[in-house]
Write a structure and sequence with these properties.
mainly alpha, 8 helices, about 60% helix
Amino acid sequence: MVSREEPTITHIPRYYTNLESLLESITKRRGEYDSYDTSMIIAAKAGLEVFKEYYSYMKENDIYWIACVLDPRIKTKWLLRKIPEADDIIERIKSSLKKAYPQEPELPSISRAEEEKKKKSMNFSFLEEFAEIVSADDDIERYFTTSVIKAVLDPKEN
């Protein structure tokens, strides 16, 4: 469950990109920062250098990106819009998930007669004609290729 009050791991990439944008705006004296004292700009430049080092560590750690794309309201949309290396990161995430959740080996097939002899739960029997059998690999690809879920924003929660 995602906290509405406190930041969670899913927010970290967004915080990093926002902080990077802020520091770059200050160091380049964009907008309201054009009148900042030179000592503030120098301090911001030093901060930006340190920040870039930590940001590079975060970019290489897939857990942040996985947490980010597992939000079904956004999936990869934010990543594709905000991160230049998004395609590489998404492929890395897919590869990581496929490695962590490998496709299950195919079970030996049994004859229709043997299959009919097996007892099935009522629920399984009901769903069997509507469901399809998929592997973990299929599930991962399907997640990344299907649309995001619709999210309704409530302005009162802002």
